[in-house]
Amino acid sequence: MPAAGQVWDPRAYARNGRFVSELGAPVLDWLAPRAGERVLDLGCGDGALTEQIAAAGCSVVGGDASAEFVATARERGLDARLIDGQALGFSNEFDAVFSNAALHWMKRDPDAVLAGVARALKPGGRFVAEMGAAGNVASIRAAVYDALTRRGIDAVGADPWYFPTADEYRARLEAAGFTVARIESFSRPTPLPGEVAGWLRTFAQAFLQFVPENERAAVVSEVQEVLRPQLGVGGVWIADYVRLRFIANKTINKVSA
Ligand code: BEZ
User: Fold this and answer.
1) 197-215 pLDDT, tens per residue?
2) 217: containing domain
3) Does the beta carbon of 241 sit less than 6 angstroms from any atom of ligand 1?
Protein backbone atom coordinates (compact mmCIF):
# COMPACT_ATOMS: atom_id res chain seq x y z
CA MET A 1 0.00 0.00 0.00
CA PRO A 2 1.22 3.54 -0.68
CA ALA A 3 1.76 5.78 2.38
CA ALA A 4 -1.57 6.09 4.20
CA GLY A 5 -3.85 8.61 2.52
CA GLN A 6 -1.58 9.09 -0.49
CA VAL A 7 -3.27 8.30 -3.81
CA TRP A 8 -1.14 8.66 -6.91
CA ASP A 9 -2.88 10.00 -9.99
CA PRO A 10 -0.41 9.45 -12.85
CA ARG A 11 -1.87 12.33 -14.92
CA ALA A 12 -1.66 14.85 -12.06
CA TYR A 13 1.81 13.48 -11.31
CA ALA A 14 2.89 14.08 -14.91
CA ARG A 15 1.75 17.72 -14.47
CA ASN A 16 3.09 18.44 -10.99
CA GLY A 17 5.80 15.84 -10.46
CA ARG A 18 7.58 15.21 -13.77
CA PHE A 19 10.60 17.08 -12.37
CA VAL A 20 11.12 14.16 -9.95
CA SER A 21 12.27 11.78 -12.69
CA GLU A 22 13.95 14.58 -14.68
CA LEU A 23 16.09 15.44 -11.66
CA GLY A 24 16.87 11.75 -11.18
CA ALA A 25 19.46 11.84 -13.99
CA PRO A 26 22.46 12.18 -11.63
CA VAL A 27 21.30 9.14 -9.65
CA LEU A 28 21.17 7.18 -12.90
CA ASP A 29 24.73 8.36 -13.55
CA TRP A 30 25.75 6.94 -10.18
CA LEU A 31 24.01 3.67 -11.05
CA ALA A 32 25.90 3.50 -14.38
CA PRO A 33 23.74 0.63 -15.66
CA ARG A 34 25.53 -1.89 -17.88
CA ALA A 35 23.91 -3.94 -20.63
CA GLY A 36 22.91 -7.40 -19.42
CA GLU A 37 22.56 -6.42 -15.77
CA ARG A 38 19.44 -7.33 -13.83
CA VAL A 39 18.16 -4.27 -11.96
CA LEU A 40 15.28 -3.60 -9.56
CA ASP A 41 13.86 -0.06 -9.60
CA LEU A 42 12.35 0.24 -6.13
CA GLY A 43 9.48 2.76 -6.09
CA CYS A 44 9.48 3.05 -9.86
CA GLY A 45 6.50 5.43 -10.04
CA ASP A 46 5.28 5.81 -13.62
CA GLY A 47 8.43 4.10 -14.92
CA ALA A 48 10.15 7.11 -16.53
CA LEU A 49 13.57 6.20 -15.10
CA THR A 50 12.92 2.44 -15.28
CA GLU A 51 12.54 2.92 -19.02
CA GLN A 52 15.96 4.57 -19.20
CA ILE A 53 17.55 1.66 -17.31
CA ALA A 54 15.90 -0.75 -19.77
CA ALA A 55 17.20 1.38 -22.66
CA ALA A 56 20.73 0.84 -21.31
CA GLY A 57 20.25 -2.87 -22.06
CA CYS A 58 19.36 -4.02 -18.56
CA SER A 59 16.69 -6.53 -17.61
CA VAL A 60 14.78 -4.31 -15.22
CA VAL A 61 11.90 -4.91 -12.82
CA GLY A 62 9.99 -1.85 -11.64
CA GLY A 63 8.29 -2.18 -8.28
CA ASP A 64 5.80 0.22 -6.75
CA ALA A 65 3.13 0.19 -4.03
CA SER A 66 0.71 2.18 -6.21
CA ALA A 67 -1.47 0.12 -8.55
CA GLU A 68 -2.04 3.26 -10.65
CA PHE A 69 1.70 3.77 -11.15
CA VAL A 70 2.27 0.08 -11.90
CA ALA A 71 -0.43 0.24 -14.60
CA THR A 72 1.19 3.35 -16.13
CA ALA A 73 4.65 1.76 -16.08
CA ARG A 74 3.22 -1.35 -17.78
CA GLU A 75 1.79 0.87 -20.53
CA ARG A 76 5.42 1.74 -21.29
CA GLY A 77 6.02 -1.98 -21.88
CA LEU A 78 7.93 -2.43 -18.62
CA ASP A 79 7.92 -5.40 -16.26
CA ALA A 80 6.27 -3.48 -13.41
CA ARG A 81 5.01 -5.18 -10.28
CA LEU A 82 2.89 -4.18 -7.31
CA ILE A 83 5.18 -4.57 -4.31
CA ASP A 84 5.51 -3.52 -0.68
CA GLY A 85 8.99 -2.03 -0.34
CA GLN A 86 8.95 -3.00 3.33
CA ALA A 87 8.38 -6.69 2.51
CA LEU A 88 10.39 -7.40 -0.64
CA GLY A 89 10.18 -11.02 -1.78
CA PHE A 90 13.25 -11.25 -4.05
CA SER A 91 16.28 -13.39 -3.29
CA ASN A 92 19.85 -13.06 -4.65
CA GLU A 93 18.73 -12.08 -8.13
CA PHE A 94 19.71 -8.48 -8.87
CA ASP A 95 23.05 -6.95 -9.81
CA ALA A 96 21.73 -3.58 -8.64
CA VAL A 97 18.80 -2.02 -6.83
CA PHE A 98 18.03 1.57 -7.85
CA SER A 99 15.66 3.98 -6.16
CA ASN A 100 14.86 7.64 -6.80
CA ALA A 101 12.67 9.75 -4.52
CA ALA A 102 10.83 6.77 -3.08
CA LEU A 103 12.56 5.55 0.09
CA HIS A 104 11.30 8.51 2.14
CA TRP A 105 7.74 7.24 1.61
CA MET A 106 8.67 3.91 3.29
CA LYS A 107 8.59 5.32 6.78
CA ARG A 108 6.97 2.53 8.76
CA ASP A 109 10.04 0.25 8.75
CA PRO A 110 13.20 1.54 7.00
CA ASP A 111 15.23 -1.41 8.30
CA ALA A 112 12.81 -3.86 6.69
CA VAL A 113 13.33 -1.99 3.39
CA LEU A 114 17.10 -2.38 3.68
CA ALA A 115 16.87 -6.04 4.74
CA GLY A 116 14.71 -6.73 1.66
CA VAL A 117 17.11 -4.88 -0.66
CA ALA A 118 20.04 -6.84 0.79
CA ARG A 119 18.18 -10.12 0.21
CA ALA A 120 17.26 -9.09 -3.35
CA LEU A 121 20.88 -8.35 -4.34
CA LYS A 122 23.49 -10.84 -5.40
CA PRO A 123 26.59 -10.75 -3.15
CA GLY A 124 28.59 -7.62 -4.05
CA GLY A 125 25.53 -6.12 -5.79
CA ARG A 126 25.02 -2.38 -5.46
CA PHE A 127 22.24 -0.28 -4.01
CA VAL A 128 22.19 3.19 -5.58
CA ALA A 129 19.55 5.61 -4.41
CA GLU A 130 18.45 9.14 -3.67
CA MET A 131 15.83 10.19 -1.15
CA GLY A 132 14.87 13.18 0.95
CA ALA A 133 17.40 13.93 3.70
CA ALA A 134 16.96 15.59 7.10
CA GLY A 135 15.72 19.12 6.45
CA ASN A 136 14.00 18.18 3.18
CA VAL A 137 11.05 20.49 2.36
CA ALA A 138 11.41 21.80 5.92
CA SER A 139 9.56 25.06 5.35
CA ILE A 140 6.70 23.32 3.53
CA ARG A 141 6.44 20.71 6.25
CA ALA A 142 6.47 23.39 8.99
CA ALA A 143 3.72 25.42 7.28
CA VAL A 144 1.58 22.28 6.87
CA TYR A 145 2.16 21.34 10.52
CA ASP A 146 1.07 24.85 11.60
CA ALA A 147 -2.09 24.79 9.48
CA LEU A 148 -3.10 21.37 10.83
CA THR A 149 -2.16 22.09 14.43
CA ARG A 150 -4.29 25.28 14.38
CA ARG A 151 -7.23 23.01 13.51
CA GLY A 152 -6.47 20.54 16.29
CA ILE A 153 -5.14 17.87 13.89
CA ASP A 154 -2.16 15.69 14.88
CA ALA A 155 0.30 16.64 12.12
CA VAL A 156 3.13 14.47 13.48
CA GLY A 157 0.87 11.41 13.39
CA ALA A 158 -0.21 12.23 9.84
CA ASP A 159 3.33 12.80 8.55
CA PRO A 160 4.21 10.15 5.90
CA TRP A 161 7.83 11.18 5.30
CA TYR A 162 11.12 9.74 6.58
CA PHE A 163 14.06 12.10 6.00
CA PRO A 164 17.19 10.74 7.73
CA THR A 165 20.62 12.27 8.17
CA ALA A 166 23.53 10.72 6.26
CA ASP A 167 24.98 9.38 9.54
CA GLU A 168 21.71 7.73 10.52
CA TYR A 169 21.21 6.13 7.12
CA ARG A 170 24.83 4.96 6.90
CA ALA A 171 24.36 3.17 10.24
CA ARG A 172 21.19 1.51 8.98
CA LEU A 173 22.89 0.43 5.74
CA GLU A 174 25.84 -1.06 7.63
CA ALA A 175 23.54 -2.86 10.08
CA ALA A 176 21.73 -4.38 7.08
CA GLY A 177 25.00 -5.79 5.69
CA PHE A 178 26.09 -3.09 3.25
CA THR A 179 29.46 -1.45 2.78
CA VAL A 180 28.87 2.22 2.03
CA ALA A 181 31.02 3.40 -0.89
CA ARG A 182 29.63 6.93 -1.01
CA ILE A 183 26.94 8.88 0.83
CA GLU A 184 26.20 12.58 0.53
CA SER A 185 23.53 14.97 1.71
CA PHE A 186 23.10 18.31 -0.05
CA SER A 187 20.58 21.10 -0.64
CA ARG A 188 18.89 21.11 -4.01
CA PRO A 189 16.52 24.07 -4.33
CA THR A 190 13.93 22.71 -6.74
CA PRO A 191 11.92 24.90 -9.14
CA LEU A 192 8.31 23.72 -9.25
CA PRO A 193 6.28 23.55 -12.46
CA GLY A 194 3.57 25.74 -10.89
CA GLU A 195 2.54 27.08 -7.51
CA VAL A 196 3.21 25.16 -4.32
CA ALA A 197 -0.54 24.48 -4.15
CA GLY A 198 -0.14 21.94 -6.97
CA TRP A 199 2.77 20.33 -5.10
CA LEU A 200 0.66 20.09 -1.93
CA ARG A 201 -2.28 18.53 -3.76
CA THR A 202 0.06 15.97 -5.36
CA PHE A 203 2.41 15.12 -2.49
CA ALA A 204 0.77 16.14 0.81
CA GLN A 205 -2.42 14.09 0.66
CA ALA A 206 -1.47 12.11 3.75
CA PHE A 207 -1.80 15.36 5.74
CA LEU A 208 -4.80 16.77 3.86
CA GLN A 209 -6.89 13.63 4.38
CA PHE A 210 -7.34 14.68 8.02
CA VAL A 211 -8.72 18.09 7.04
CA PRO A 212 -12.49 18.10 6.46
CA GLU A 213 -13.03 18.02 2.70
CA ASN A 214 -14.75 21.40 2.57
CA GLU A 215 -11.72 23.05 4.25
CA ARG A 216 -8.93 21.48 2.17
CA ALA A 217 -8.78 24.17 -0.51
CA ALA A 218 -8.58 26.84 2.22
CA VAL A 219 -5.74 24.97 3.96
CA VAL A 220 -3.82 24.64 0.69
CA SER A 221 -4.12 28.35 -0.10
CA GLU A 222 -3.34 29.30 3.52
CA VAL A 223 -0.12 27.22 3.40
CA GLN A 224 0.74 28.70 0.02
CA GLU A 225 0.39 32.27 1.31
CA VAL A 226 2.55 31.49 4.36
CA LEU A 227 5.25 30.10 2.05
CA ARG A 228 5.04 32.74 -0.69
CA PRO A 229 7.61 35.20 0.80
CA GLN A 230 10.16 32.40 1.23
CA LEU A 231 9.54 30.03 -1.69
CA GLY A 232 7.43 31.96 -4.20
CA VAL A 233 9.39 35.17 -4.73
CA GLY A 234 8.42 36.91 -7.99
CA GLY A 235 5.87 34.17 -8.71
CA VAL A 236 8.60 31.55 -9.25
CA TRP A 237 8.20 28.72 -6.78
CA ILE A 238 11.33 26.96 -5.54
CA ALA A 239 10.98 24.18 -2.98
CA ASP A 240 13.62 23.63 -0.30
CA TYR A 241 14.66 20.08 -1.18
CA VAL A 242 17.58 18.39 0.59
CA ARG A 243 18.79 15.12 -0.89
CA LEU A 244 20.54 12.04 0.44
CA ARG A 245 22.35 10.10 -2.27
CA PHE A 246 24.41 6.96 -1.79
CA ILE A 247 26.06 3.88 -3.25
CA ALA A 248 26.28 0.84 -0.98
CA ASN A 249 27.39 -2.68 -1.80
CA LYS A 250 26.02 -5.86 -0.35
CA THR A 251 28.90 -7.24 1.67
CA ILE A 252 30.39 -10.45 0.32
CA ASN A 253 30.64 -12.91 3.21
CA LYS A 254 34.08 -14.47 3.28
CA VAL A 255 33.96 -18.19 4.00
CA SER A 256 36.98 -19.17 6.10
CA ALA A 257 39.02 -22.08 4.79
C1 BEZ B 1 11.09 14.34 -2.26
O2 BEZ B 1 11.33 13.86 -3.36
O3 BEZ B 1 11.99 14.68 -1.50
C4 BEZ B 1 9.69 14.51 -1.78
C5 BEZ B 1 8.67 14.53 -2.69
C6 BEZ B 1 7.39 14.67 -2.24
C7 BEZ B 1 7.12 14.78 -0.90
C8 BEZ B 1 8.15 14.76 -0.01
C9 BEZ B 1 9.44 14.63 -0.45
Assistant:
1) 999 999 999 999 999 999 9
2) 10-250
3) yes
